[in-house]
Amino acid sequence: xxxxxxxxxxxxxxxxxxxxxxxxxxxxxxxxxxxxxxxxxxxxxxxxxxxxxxxxxxxxxxxxxxxxxxxxxxxxxxxxxxxxxxxxxxxxxxxxxxxxxxxxxxxxxxxxxxxxxxxxxxxxxxxxxxxxxxxxxxxxxxxxxxxxxxxxxxxxxxxxxxxxxxxxxxxxxxxxxxxxxxxxxxxxxxxxxxxxxxxxxxxxxxxxxxxxxxxxxxxxxxxxxxxxxxxxxxxxxxxxxxxxxxxxxxxxxxxxxxxxxxxxxxxxxxxxxxxxxxxxxxxxxxxxxxxxxxxxxxxxxxxxxxxxxxxxxxxxxxxxxxxxxxxxxxxxxxxxxxxxxxxxxxxxxxxxxxxxxxxxxxxxxxxxxxx
Length: 371
Prior knowledge:
By secondary structure, the protein is of the alpha+beta class. The chain is built from 14 helices and 12 strands. The strands form 2 sheets. Strands 1, 3, 4, 5, 6, 7, 8, 9, 11 and 12 form a 10-stranded mixed β-sheet that branches.
């Protein structure tokens, strides 16, 4: 019963100035939303990078350094020969990625592979056969979206090609795409002798990261990515968005904390006489402090509910309107929401420090004298 009474008291105090409470919660919710959006996008960038750097079951991938988007990387195909001679490199394969409309589906992945190289050999044809000139094979997961089968025609960009087979690799990223011969892809994209990435496998026993670091030293302005976390450093659009977002989050933390402090300080000032009465009837200082802190936390929990919705919406907007890679999808893990909770509670506790100190320093007799 005591818990219910405490909760009712907090609710009553917060609703004394509903507009002030709502505006404070709205301010804090912006910070919570930014935190949730940024962390979910960061997790999405890592997931996408993990898929890109392991295309064809490679140990790591080589991309153009400083590109705005890993899928927009451009490398000369001749670079394969130099990379293949590096110590610790077992096999290399040049791949071209093309993001375009496929059968009316926007932002679809088309992969160009060279026959005989290891990604091509790892395509398991479950129906039909490998493609020749003017043909493609479709991933089994992409069938649900494209609604095609062996023998049907498929439109990639403005070109019509024949579906010669259905493949499976076990990689969800690849199995949701379309594969064609690299030479055909280069004609389609009008980028002869250019590739997007070089997939690399290392000699057994050699650490991928060590080989990647050696390649980075040997070949300037290329980025060997052996770990998903490295992708954020290479993908400039994601890096700028995330960096700017953290700056805004810090500002939101400061502004939110000041807002909560101002709201609770005003509340304490308006309830000076009430606090004096509570002290006079025996409420100890710690209980007064707990009431103020509970009210501040109550505001921030309201902000948390709003902020989570704002964060989810913001993350989808950032990824849907081309601000970062087309293939980055926000990943809303438990850890993302935990950070949002920690942010809101942190703002509440920081904002309650000054009002609490002011409230517990009020002398009961002095407080009762005030009108």
